Amino acid sequence: MSELQTYQGPATMEKITSLAKRRGFVFQSSEIYGGQNGAWDYGPLGVELKNRIARNWWKEMTRLHDEIVGLDAAILMHPRTWEASGHVENFTDPLVDCKKCKARFRADQIPPECAAEKKCPECGGELTGVRKFNLMFKTRIGPVESDDDSAVIYLRPETAQGIYVNYKNIMQSSRLKPPFGIAQIGKAFRNEIVTKNFIFRTCEFEQMEMQYFVKPGTDVEWFNEWRKRRWAYYEKLGVKTDHLRWHQHGADELAHYAKDAYDIEYLFPMGWKELEGVHNRSDYDLTRHTEYSGKDLQYIDQDDGNKEYTPFIIETSAGLTRTLLMLLCDAYDEEKVADKGGEDDYRTVLRFHPAVAPVTVAVLPLQKKDGLAELARDIHAELREDFATGYDQGGAIGRRYRRQDEAGTPFCVTVDYETKENSSVTLRFRDSMEQVRLPRAELASRLFQEIKAYKRTK
User: Fold this and answer.
1) Which of 296, 309, 289, 298 is nearest to 164 (CA)?
2) In tens digits, what is the pLDDT along the chain, a chain of 458 residues?
3) Cα-Cα end-to-end distance for the chain
4) Angle at 457 between CA 362 and CA 17, to 5 degrees
5) What backbone phi and psi angles, to 5 degrees, belong to 250?
6) All structural domains of the chain
7) Which residues does residue 119 pair with via DSSP β-bridges, in sequence order?
8) pTM of the model
9) Rg of the chain's alpha carbons, rounded to an integer?
10) What CA–CA distance (Å, rounded) separates 33 from 75?
11) In terms of Cα–Cα distance, which of 361, 339, 343, 458 is closest to 408?
C-alpha cells in the first residue's frame, strides 16, 4: 500500500464528532464548564460500544486460549516500579513553547520549515528551546503534604507493569509455565503535550494488553505468531483490510526495551495512525524488576534439567478508546437508498459487526395503539435476556429505521397488526435493508444464526 494513500471514504472527523455527540456516543468532559482538554465522557451508546469491544477482545485473548489468564492490577503502584521500567528516565517528549501566543508543541512534530527557523507554526512567533517533558502524572499519597519525595506516586502511564510485577504470582497460582500469557484491560494516564483528533490522543484512556511469556530462543517464532493472530482479529471484526497495514519500527523508533516492534496502522480520516502494537520486549522488563526489587523472577524449567532463565515477553497492546474511534470511522457510511427525490433518499449508517454493536436488535411497534406497543414490549423483554436490545415507538417507522441505522443496530424487529393475527414479525437487516417475515417463536434462533454468519459486504 502506498505511503501516500489518503483517506477517501465518507467519514470526516467533523462528521464523526457530530454523530458521536448527537447520538450519545461521546461527550466533551465537563462541557458545561467549557470542557476539560484531553478528557471525554462516553454516553449511553458509547459506553455500550466500549464495553462490547472490551468483552469481545477479552473473549479473543482469554476464553479462546487455555494458557492465557486475566488480571486487574491497581492503578497506583510502588514508585520504584517506574524507575525499574525506565519511565522515570525515558518516558519523555521534546517540548517547545511559543513566546508570543503561548501555544505548546512537541518539537518533533513541528513542520520542518518552522523548525528550521524556530518559528511557531500557529502565529510565526519565536519558539523556546527544546526541553524534556515527562509524560507521567505525578501526585502525592497520604494525608500530610510534604516537599520531600517520600510521598510521591504516579498514575500509571501503561497497564503492562502491573502484569510484570505479578507474573510470578500468577504463574505459580495458576500452575502455568512458558509459553503463557496474562491479559488486562484498564485505565492509563499520560500528560500529553498535545491532545488532538477527538478521542485518538487523550490524557486518560484505556488499554487492552496481553503479555506473553516465552522461553528465550523461541521469541521470534512467537512474535511472528502473535502478529498473525492480531491481524486476523481485525479481519474477524470485519474491519476494512485495505485500511490496515503493518509498520515496522526503525532503529530510531524502537523503545528502550524493544528487540523488535510492529504497529498495525489504520487509515483514519486524518491519515495513517497507530492502532495496535506488537512488540518483542526481550527479557528487559523482568530483568529490571529483578534488579530493582531484589526478587528472583527467573523461571525454573523442570522439563529441562531445572535450568533457569528469564522469560522473553511478546506484547500485544491496543487502546480501547482508540479502537472505538477506529470502529466508528470504519463503520461510518452514507448511502443513497431510493431514486425518488427528497432528503430521505440518503441515510447515514454505522455498519458495526453485531459482536460489538451497542444495540444488536431494536424492537419497533408499528403503532402505539391497539395493543401493538404492549406486544412489542413483551418481545423486547424476551430478547433482552440474550441480546443487547433497544426499543423505539416514537415517530414514523421509516424514521425509526433511520435512527437505528445511525446507531449501528444490525437488526430491527417490527411488530404490526399481522403479529396479532398469527404471531409473526418482520425482521429488517441494517446493511441490505432487506425485510423477511418469520414466526415470533423462531426470532431468537434466527438472530443467533444471522450474528454467527455475519459478513460485512460494504
Assistant:
1) 289
2) 344 577 778 889 999 999 999 999 999 999 999 999 889 999 999 999 999 999 999 999 999 999 999 999 999 999 999 999 988 877 777 888 888 888 878 788 788 888 888 899 889 999 988 887 778 888 888 876 666 677 889 999 999 999 999 999 999 999 999 999 999 999 999 887 666 788 998 989 999 999 999 999 999 999 999 999 999 999 999 999 999 999 999 988 888 889 999 999 999 999 999 999 999 999 999 999 999 999 999 999 999 999 999 999 999 999 999 999 999 999 999 998 875 555 557 899 999 999 999 999 999 999 888 999 999 999 999 999 999 999 999 899 999 999 999 999 999 999 999 999 999 999 999 999 999 999 999 999 999 999 999 998 88
3) 20
4) 60
5) -80, 175
6) 13-74+162-327 (3.30.930.10), 95-127 (no CATH), 346-452 (3.40.50.800)
7) 126
8) 0.89
9) 26
10) 27
11) 361
Residue 414 is placed in which grid cell? Answer: 417490527
Whose cell is 482469554? That residue is 62
- Round to whole Å and give the CA distance between 96 and 121: 12
The secondary element (H helix, E strand) that includes residue 275 is strand 271-280
Burial class of residue 102 (count of CB atoms within 10 Å of its CB; 0-12, 13-18, 19+): exposed
Spatial distance between the Cα atoms of 99 and 208, rounded to a whole number of angstroms? 39
Residue 405: its pLDDT value, please?
Answer: 96
Separation between Cα atoms, residue 93 and residue 133, nearest integer Å: 5
- Cα–Cα distance, 102 to 45 (Å, whole number): 37
DSSP string, 122-190: TT-PBBPPPEEEE-SEEEE-SSS--SSGGGEEEE-S-SHHHHHHHHHHHHHHTT--SSEEEEEEEEEE-
Beta-carbon neighbour count of residue 148 at 10 Å? 7
C-alpha cell at 310: 528469564
C-alpha cell at 181: 500469557
Taking CA 365 as the corner, what is the angle to CA 361 and CA 367, rounded to the nearest 5 degrees? Answer: 160
Report residue 333: phi and psi, to 5°.
-150, 150
Question: Under a CB-based contact definition with an 8 Å cutoff, are residues 140 and 153 in contact?
Answer: yes
The C-alpha angle 222, 223, 229, rounded to 5 degrees, equals 85
- Please report how the helices 372-383 and 443-452 are oriented relative to each other, as an axis angle in degrees rounded to 10: 50
- Of 33, 41, 3, 416, the closest CA to residue 245 belongs to 3
